[in-house]
Write a structure and sequence with these properties.
6-stranded mixed beta sheet; 431 residues; 8 helices
Length: 431
């Protein structure tokens, strides 16, 4: 089996308007292909509308395809189609991860935010060509993408990169320009299990306090969902080592949230107008902080009292020393040479690991008002931290592809991203 995903094997069509909290899976039937079944909460409602064409023979396959799985969350059902070979045993001595913001990748002429006309066809073609070249250049084992609107251009990017036959694309099947999400491309032999797009905060999430002293007033933050779904999946580069859990994130941006459409603003616009930008920035900061806490809780659930390797990557829209990153990482100690230690639940910044072995810090992934900042990060648990007693993977270096950020005209002329592309490389210890 060569791991290729042949076209025309089956065509799922999914109605994603069914109420949340119902999950569907697809059972294999030797005679008829796939049939839908409900998993999770049981009730009397009918399942989502899933229609699958019969399985056809393919010379590229020597075993049947794995069934796709629909993961239901707050924003509807997502269909993940894993390429044949997902979960195959592998003994790679290296693994690499890349974070890539696709800068509102969409098909032409589809609306995005306040842009009612969308991208021109020629501009989308330039974006696809540039992104394909960048993927071929980085050539990581795992790519985590942000700002994807439509799966079509990403499929073309992977094909044009020349790497499409070796990688499995993790993207919601119904990602057709109606919303923005995260996605991934993973070397097929490393894929394990089924990806999830998570919209709901963990049950343990709560931001409510009466303060530390009597004069501090009650504070409550009423938020329960991510602004962009978090993509969670698992890779296993080496069959004799634990699988690595990967979370691809896109936190709320620093841009001020619009408040002029809020009823409370319209009722007293004269009172709030002069303060709209400051209020909007505060709202964005609170939302981003809440999202950092929610992911932190997810990481703790994975790592507490375990040796589970975790990688969190993406556009976190804040710097390494920000409150957002401090919540997410738990501010671990970076040990001196020859020292060993590690933290059970903390995350270590790839930026910091690279700085500790470099003569100067030139890390930036974004330029705003001529200020060079780092918004895109790769964070790793102690199993990928060099001086941890529980280290499995050794950090080999971090690369930033950011030359395109210094010429703003390239966004239109060549379709470049407005973020740098970040890659972190690791090798296996003791093999």
């Amino acid at each position: 089996m060569n791991g290729r995903w042949p076209s025309g094997v089956y065509t799922p069509e999914t109605d994603c308007n069914e109420a949340a909290n119902d999950s569907l899976a697809l059972d294999r039937d030797p005679a008829n292909g796939f049939e839908p079944r409900r998993v999770g909460k049981e009730d009397d409602r009918s399942g989502a509308n899933v229609r699958l064409a019969p399985i056809t023979a393919s010379p590229a396959l020597d075993e049947p395809l794995p069934p796709p799985v629909i993961v239901q969350s707050g924003n509807g059902a997502y269909l993940s189609t894993l390429a044949p070979g997902g979960g195959m045993t592998m003994k790679s001595r290296t693994v690499s991860f890349t974070s890539f913001n696709l800068f509102n990748l969409n098909e032409p002429n589809l609306p995005m935010y306040t842009n009612s006309v969308g991208h021109e066809p020629a501009h989308v073609s330039r974006k696809v060509a540039w992104s394909a070249a960048m993927i071929a250049r980085a050539k990581a084992d795992v790519f985590g993408f942000q700002e994807l609107w439509h799966k079509g251009p990403l499929e073309r990017i992977l094909a044009q990169s020349g790497m499409g036959t070796d990688y499995t694309l993790l993207v919601p099947d119904n990602q057709l320009g109606q919303r923005i999400t995260c996605a991934a491309a993973v070397r097929t032999e490393m894929v394990q299990g089924t990806p999830e797009w998570i919209t709901e905060f963990p049950e343990s999430f709560r931001l409510e306090s009466r303060g530390d002293d009597p004069q501090t007033p009650l504070m409550t933050v009423g938020i329960s969902k991510f602004s962009r779904p978090v993509l969670k999946f698992t890779v296993r580069p080496h069959e004799e080592r634990p699988a690595i859990h990967v979370l691809v994130c896109h936190f709320k941006s620093k841009a001020p949230t619009r408040i002029d459409r809020e009823p409370w603003y319209r009722g007293q616009s004269a009172l709030y107008r002069d303060h709209a930008a400051a209020i909007g920035s505060a709202i964005s900061t609170v939302r981003r902080t809440a999202e950092a806490l929610a992911v932190r809780q997810m990481v703790t659930d994975l790592t507490k009292r375990s040796d589970t390797p975790v990688v969190v990557l993406g556009d976190l829209n804040d710097g390494q020393d920000s409150n957002t990153l401090e919540i997410l990482t738990e501010q671990p100690n970076y040990l001196q040479p020859l020292s060993t230690g590690g933290s059970d639940t903390a995350l270590y910044s790839g930026q910091a690991l690279q700085q500790l072995r470099s003569l100067r810090d030139v890390y930036y992934t974004y330029i705003h008002k001529r200020v060079h900042g780092s918004l895109d990060h790769i964070l790793v648990s102690q199993e990928l931290y060099d001086q941890s007693r529980k280290r499995i993977w050794k950090f080999d270096g971090l690369d930033i592809y950011n030359d395109h950020l210094n010429d703003d005209g390239l966004k239109l002329a060549e379709g470049v991203s407005d973020h740098g592309v970040v890659r972190a490389k690791f090798s296996l210890r003791g093999v």
